[in-house]
Amino acid sequence: MLRHLYIHLNGKDESEWPLLSDLEGGIRWALGSALSVNQRDYWARVTLADLEVLTAQVDRVTETYQKAVALADGDWFNLDSSKQQLTLLALLGFRPRKVAAGLQVIESELNRLERPEQGTSPERVVLFSGHMIDREGRDVPRFPPAHEADATARIEAKFDELGAEAGDVGICGGACGGDLIFAERCLNRNMFVEIRIPFPEPRFLEKSVRCSDDSWQERFYQVVRNQRAKLFEMSEELGRTPSNHNDHAGNNIWQLYSALCRGPDKVSFIALWDGRAGDAEGGTEHMWNAVSERHGRVYRIDANELQPV
To answer: Whole domain around residue 56: which residue ranges?
Structure first.
């Protein structure tokens, strides 16, 4: 399913990917093996239902999700996790009749259960994109280290304006500068943080975290080690990026839909941005345009107005 989701996000021609028929047999064999060991394995059964969204008719999709739900044993969190994945596909308009059939089964069961107090969905989801801190010797300054304190104060003020508080979720990319400042301020408010990065961690650290000084790498580790933070690698979650697509642009879209699947009405986007085109594809300008086209609740902190402190 993630393969098809990535194609949908990036407009990739499926002819350049392995045929689904080449993958289906292996997936069914692996799931069958898991179920032969434990017939009550919810995740194996619901993954089989996910596969039917790609391969079967609507009636079969409904039947397979019903079998999965019967094994959930009233586990609200497992069911809600499955619902979030289907909700994301629904927002994308991906195979709408089949996705709607699966959602109907899972939502019917969730409505029957009492939602636990712990782990309830957040009131607000705050998505962020912003400039990296300037590397030493940058030709045209954009976010000099001396402006960090002012940027931090403006992000805090925007949180106050939005009413962000404990239990809400922040989503960002984890780079030195705006991303990590945002993540730190989220954790300071006892919010949950999702760091979503386009590359495996070692490559990401080299390209996007080791910036003006070594302290940013330690700040990255302090964020991702926090019990309220979670690190997601796009290559692990969605598979490799097609050769003619930009990793950073794909990561922006992944972050956006990860926010919207919590409920579009809950999402606000903050950009720390100078209003100009970035150094490369997939920067803050791209995220601003992507959010504006799909959602529209956008708030800009003008990097041109930042002052040294």
So the answer is: 2-112
Q: How many domains, in total, are found in the chain?
A: 2
pTM: 0.70
Angle, helices 96-112/42-55, rounded to nearest 10 degrees: 150
Residues 59 and 98 in one domain: yes
pLDDT range class, residue 106, cuts 50, 70, 90 = very high
**Within this chain, do residues 63 and 159 fall inside the same structural domain, yes or no?**
no
d(CA 291, CA 39): 43
Checking if the pLDDT of 124 tops 50, the result is yes
Same domain, 48 and 92: yes
Residues 106 and 153 in one domain: no
Q: What is the rounded CA–CA span in Å between residue 59 and residue 194? A: 36
Closest CA to 130 of 309, 249, 302: 302
